Amino acid sequence: MTGPQDVTEPTAQAQIRWGGVVWGLLLAIFAGSTLYVLASAERAAGVALWLRSLTPGSAWALAAAVLGLIIVVSALLGGIRASQRRRVRPRG
Known about the structure:
Elements: H1 18-38, H2 41-53, H3 56-87
């Protein structure tokens, strides 16, 4: 007696979820950088001095660069996901 799936039928190979891998890696890098800065009073003071020295224009430029990085990473991951979906052929 067999269950819902036939034992002789090959199963689909699990796909790597690259979005989770990449966003998790970026989050780990951000967390590691934050811990590195906060582990030393000198480094924290240096970052605070740098943040206070930002002009409104440079702060907006920095924000635009971060937003651009998020958009680029999202677009690359969307392209990877689309290519993975095209590679998988439906059964039937």
